[in-house]
Specification:
Layout lengths: L1 H25 L10 E7 L2 E5 L2 E4 L5 E2 L4 E4 L4 E6 L4 E4 L4 E10 L4 E16 L2 H5 L4 E5 L2 E4 L4 E6 L2
Parallel strand pairs: 9-10
Antiparallel strand pairs: 1-4, 1-6, 2-3, 2-5, 5-8, 6-7, 7-9, 8-9, 9-12, 10-11
Length: about 160
């Protein structure tokens, strides 16, 4: 009986460690060299699609190129990119982080974000000051070029 319990406990321990490692891998894009920002605010239910795998997003989580963030009816949050551009999204929103490049030493800049639905408030950072023409926010109806410092996008279904 004791051997059976030890064997069961050992298997449960391995399962727990496996689940912990798989959730960590899901929350971290191990193939990307650099993260592009982080989820500075997260309230309610927010999911992140990372390479076809959906994980629960949480405050402080790093974000990478091609991540897609989807907030549920009770979810809202804010992504802050490495250049200090922020994208605050409301409930029932879908925001995809298409591309990001911020290398001032090489004069290489760019930010492309897709807003498929919901509402987003954007406050631009260093890229808009250095190279505003390299910023684009796409919606199902068109693309917004950036020339200012703060704007709101609302995409209805």
């Amino acid at each position: 009986m004791i051997r059976m319990r030890r064997g069961l406990l050992s298997k449960l321990g391995v399962l727990a460690v496996s689940l912990l490692v798989s959730s960590w891998v899901g929350a971290t894009d191990l193939t990307s060299k650099k993260y592009i920002g982080s989820l500075r605010e997260a309230e309610g239910r927010i999911l992140m699609d990372r390479g076809g795998r959906e994980v629960f997003a949480r405050r402080g989580m790093r974000v990478f190129k091609r991540d897609t963030i989807r907030s549920e009816a009770d979810g809202e949050g804010a992504v802050v990119f490495r250049d200090e551009t922020s994208v605050r999204f409301g409930p029932n929103s879908t925001v995809s982080l298409e591309d990001f490049e911020y290398a001032p030493q090489d004069k290489s800049f760019g930010l492309q974000v897709g807003i498929a639905k919901g509402i987003a408030v954007v406050v631009t950072g260093a890229i808009a000051k250095s190279a505003p023409e390299t910023m684009a926010f796409t919606t199902p109806k068109g693309t917004i070029g950036i020339r200012g410092t703060k704007f709101t996008v609302k995409v209805e279904e």
